[in-house]
Amino acid sequence: MRRIRTRTVALGVALVAAVPLALTAPAAAAPATDSTVEEGRLTQAAPQEILRRSGFEVWEREFARGLARVTSYPEARRYVADEGRALWRRAVDRAQGRGPDGGDLSRDDDRPLYWARLGMTKELRQWKPEFGLSEDRRDALLGSLERGSRGQDSIALPAGKEVLRVVVTGFDPFQLDADARRSNPSGAVALALDGTTVRTASGKPARIETAVFPVRWADFAAGTVERTLLPHFRGGPRQADLFTTVSQGRPGRFDVERTNGAWRGGYPDNARDSRTELVPIPAGVPTVRPQPQWTTTTLPYAKIVAAGTGPYPVVDHTAVTEIPAGGGAPVDRPDGPTPGSTARAGGGGDYLSNEIAYRATLLRDAVRPAIPGGHLHTPVLEFGPDNTDPANGQVTDPVFVRNRIAITGQVRAVVTVAASEVAAAARAADRK
Fold first, then answer.
1. Domains identified in the chain and CATH numbers
2. Which letter, b or e, does each residue of 172-204 get, where b requires 16 or more Cβ atoms within 10 Å of its Cβ?
3. What's the pLDDT tens digit per position in 122-168?
4. What pTM was computed for the model?
């Protein structure tokens, strides 16, 4: 997910400081008041139609009824965690053809999950139980609901050498003030691929587990990416063998982003918050010291680009924007950063798609540098040519659905190519 801009790099890293992880819950988008900016969009016609036509309009109502029966904070913790995970499972099941479709909205649609979650967080934010609830405890419940309903705390990679383990992440819809109908193909990818298995070129299975992230600067600063990924990057029988973060990028093409920059460009997020600063690394996270300006992909980008994975071209994207060593104005570099430069945009720009790529690869470099991983930008998901005006357009159309399905299918193919390369490298190492 990017706000249209592009850049990329290569680099060497320094010393690793591996401090035990001790993160607090991800920051809420706003204090626990009546509603957040995101929740405030729920009253618009497009979100309500999306919820109604998917059957997901019941989640807010049923969640509120359940809250009304809760009589203690420990009970609230259990209920909220269970309901968050249940929403994620229902969204995954719907996307993968299990259970009722709930309406005529295409099953592959990521938007019902997003809007249903916001209905539930709104109810939780406004809940006034008789036993009393401090703001800290309410925030903890909101964090639990967010993590559970995004699949962040249910990544279940299998153990054993007979299977590869792959982590894929996506994002919520964004830029919704301009068009509340928007979908994010990376979120649809996460729902379609979660818990699925692909066969590599050698026949070895690769199990994929997914999660979705918010489009909010505050949550990233609070460590939501590191909290989710660290357990699967650390060594052990269930450690990931491959990862890719995914977001929506440029029209008409995929990009494998070669380099990621340590800079936040300030474009407003879904909470209308803006941050222009060095990417902040939360305390307690294993990281590289001093903080590098750039990180680089370890995905097999040349193989991915050459593989012919689907209808869209796939580009090895190497451009970045930097301030050269010694200072001066930002400079666009088509072939990556120069030594000693300061990041102003990675290959994925200076928004949260670049930031998730930077955070994930920085964490990789601190914990397990050999793991192949990086960022994949999908094409922009566009409505049909007769359905572009949000003022009078439909929430879906055949072109829109066809494009989203094609993007999802091609991401699956890209992941299969990358997993095949990992499997081949492992076989070669075993023969030595």
1. 15-24+157-431 (3.40.630.20), 37-148 (no CATH)
2. bbbbbeeebbbbbbbbbbbbbbbbbebebeeeb
3. 999 999 999 999 999 999 999 999 999 999 999 999 999 999 999 99
4. 0.93
